[in-house]
Amino acid sequence: MSSGTNSTRTTLSGTVARLSPLALPFVFLFLGGLGLTVAQSFGWLLPGEFPGGWLEGYREALRPHLLASFGLSLSVALVSAGLSVALGSVAAYVIWKLPEGLRRGAVVYKVGLILPHAAVAFVILILWSQSGFLASLGHHLGLVETPGDFPTILFGGNGLGMVLAYTYKETPFVILLALAVLLRTDPRLVQTARMFGASEPVIFRRIILPRLRPVLNTAFIILYLYTFGAFDIPFLLGESSPGMLSIEIYNLYFNRDLVNRPTAMALLVFMLLFSVVFIVFYTRVARRLEQGERKL
Question: Domain range holding 118?
Answer without folding.
Answer: 64-295
